[in-house]
């Protein structure tokens, strides 16, 4: 009893002392005028600028119209850095990840030119994107060692329970301590190459962020906390089949715990209709208001370095303020038609590319072009992509492409529209250039999961498209009978196993068709981000030798009530 009483008394005394302190502080605060602008705050106000890009996807070089490219990006960033520094501020340059995959000249060199370009631009940090795992981990490790800046990911763990990358880094920006946390989409586990990522665990980014934020606060190592993420921005958190993105992250955390999220993955310009949760109708050069959710700004600069996002921040009275925001086009052009003549003109001032970086990268561009002609595989017979054939029957090349796409992501079924197969590959040697003639469109592979009953309904439409049209589907992984008149399918096997209406199955289809192209049912799939030509290239390269007969139709699809055994031909009644 006595003991407890003494403890209680001591506690009361401490409380009284604390209350005393507090009221002293309050008196002190009242006496100091509170600045409401950076100018009023004077010396106390720290200004800094965050520049950001995301989803580079191999675009180190400008396109054939001279748009974007890292040399112009560098010139723009150098110019902004100089301007910010002449006004007494400092600049941080961040990337929202996915440096890898998308352009043959880059893919063939494991994105080496892209990382060299990022070093020359002097990026400060990047988020790790899902496409950083498209190559064996040894390639990623070498990219990490080449990079003069950290790759950050708080939610990727190795088998031994330690993180594969640093969770965050604290930057001293004009005397202000800015922590930047990296986060990666959990979908990486689903769409990454299982061969490369099977030893890694991708944990929930929101849980991981909360943990890291608590750690940063506890250690008192930062004044403001940012995140650079590769999770996608979905307006009003409507992420559909994709893993939750930046909006969910911001809403899940305590209000304002993150000052800003610099994102990537969904490859959209995040410009909102002010005061709403909806995207604004944005065109290059327009004003852009970033998203604001639960006290967190969310920014994303479309893709490929088409824009550099510029956020000018001011910090005073212990608070961060966004003074201005822009998406600056990097030599983007628009078509202008006068009379019969259409020309492309810059949407904003032309940026003269940095000459030194352009020269440095031109070496890699030429080397990459040279590698397009290198032999990646051989085939013992013609792989048939002739328009007249592929739109009228199952062909070895059509089915090989469907097979390449489904194996890339470990799906049960591969569906490929024959309109997306543009050429044959002759018997003999195969180069990347051959692959690009077969699949020149740069469609992405999508991944959907459905019950057997839903797959049946999907294929009722897709398998009964008429012969002769680009919609005619090349399909692998399904044994079925197609009734062309009733437009129904009876599936007996999927991926070598007996069909069940309630079992769950996954399938791939090009993004063009998933969006309803060729009259396909509209899907809400996972966007794997794999470009079709790159998938086909990797498939050939991994196989080395192709036995064309392995991909020939094997009678797994039987067409009934049709004028042809090769597909549906039903005369209009
Ligand atoms: Zn991505």
UniProtKB/TrEMBL annotation:
Residues 375-524 form the 5'-Nucleotidase C-terminal domain. It comes from the Bacteria. The keyword Signal applies. Signal peptide: none annotated. Keywords: Hydrolase, Metal-binding, Nucleotide-binding, Signal. Residues 49-266 form the Calcineurin-like phosphoesterase domain. The keyword Signal applies. This is Bifunctional metallophosphatase/5'-nucleotidase. The lineage of its organism: Bacteria, Pseudomonadati, Pseudomonadota, Gammaproteobacteria, Alteromonadales. It comes from Shewanella litoralis. Belongs to the 5'-nucleotidase family. It holds the Pfam family Metallophos. The gene is ushA. NCBIfam families: PRK09558.1.
């Amino acid at each position: 009893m006595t003991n407890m009483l003494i403890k209680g008394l001591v506690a009361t005394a401490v409380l009284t002392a604390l209350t005393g302190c507090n009221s002293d502080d309050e008196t002190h605060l009242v006496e100091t005028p509170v600045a409401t602008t950076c100018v009023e705050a004077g010396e106390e106000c720290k200004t800094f600028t965050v520049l950001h890009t995301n989803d580079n996807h191999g675009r180190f070089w400008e396109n054939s119209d001279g748009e974007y490219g890292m040399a112009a990006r560098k010139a723009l960033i150098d110019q902004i850095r100089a301007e910010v520094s002449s006004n007494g501020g400092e600049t941080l340059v961040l990337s929202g990840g996915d440096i890898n995959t998308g352009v043959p000249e880059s893919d063939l060199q494991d994105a080496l030119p892209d990382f060299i370009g990022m070093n020359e631009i002097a990026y400060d940090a990047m988020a790790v994107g899902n496409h950083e795992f498209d190559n064996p981990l040894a390639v990623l490790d070498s990219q990490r060692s080449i990079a003069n800046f950290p790759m950050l990911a708080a939610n990727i763990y190795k088998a031994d329970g330690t993180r594969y990358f640093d969770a965050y880094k604290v930057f001293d920006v004009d005397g202000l301590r800015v922590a930047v946390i990296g986060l990666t989409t959990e979908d990486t586990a689903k769409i990454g190459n299982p061969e490369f990522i099977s030893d890694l665990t991708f944990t929930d980014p929101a849980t991981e962020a909360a943990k890291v934020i608590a750690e940063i606060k506890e250690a008192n190592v930062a004044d403001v906390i940012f995140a650079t993420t590769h999770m996608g921005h979905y307006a009003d958190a409507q992420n559909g089949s994709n893993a939750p993105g930046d909006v969910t992250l911001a809403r899940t955390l305590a209000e304002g715990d993150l000052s800003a999220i610099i994102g990537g993955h969904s490859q959209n310009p995040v410009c909102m209709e002010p005061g709403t949760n909806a995207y604004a109708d944005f065109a290059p050069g327009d004003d852009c208001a970033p998203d604001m959710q639960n006290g967190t700004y969310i920014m994303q600069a479309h893709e490929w370095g088409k824009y550099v996002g510029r956020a000018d921040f001011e910090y005073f009275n212990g608070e961060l303020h966004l003074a201005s925001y822009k998406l600056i086009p990097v030599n983007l052009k628009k078509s202008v038609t006068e009379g019969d003549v259409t020309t492309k003109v810059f949407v904003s001032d032309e940026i003269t590319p940095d000459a030194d970086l352009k020269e440095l990268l031109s070496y890699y561009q030429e080397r990459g072009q040279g590698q397009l002609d290198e032999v990646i595989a051989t085939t013992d017979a013609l792989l048939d992509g002739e328009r007249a054939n592929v739109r009228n029957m199952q062909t070895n090349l059509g089915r090989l492409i469907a097979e390449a796409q489904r194996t890339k992501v470990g799906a049960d079924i591969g569906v490929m529209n024959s309109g997306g197969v543009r050429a044959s590959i002759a018997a003999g040697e195969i180069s990347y250039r051959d692959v690009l003639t077969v699949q020149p469109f740069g469609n992405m592979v999508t991944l959907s999961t459905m019950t057997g009953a839903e797959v049946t309904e999907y294929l009722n439409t897709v398998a009964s498209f008429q012969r002769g049209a680009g919609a005619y589907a090349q399909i692998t992984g399904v044994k079925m009978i197609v009734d062309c008149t009733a437009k129904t399918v009876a599936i007996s096997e999927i991926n070598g196993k007996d069909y069940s209406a309630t079992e769950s199955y996954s399938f791939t289809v090009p993004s063009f068709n998933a969006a309803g192209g060729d009259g396909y049912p509209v899907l809400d799939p996972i966007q794997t981000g794999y470009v079709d030509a790159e998938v086909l290239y990797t498939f050939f390269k991994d196989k080395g030798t192709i036995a064309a007969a392995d991909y020939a139709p094997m009678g797994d699809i039987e067409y009934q009530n049709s004028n042809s055994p090769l597909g549906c031909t039903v005369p209009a009644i």
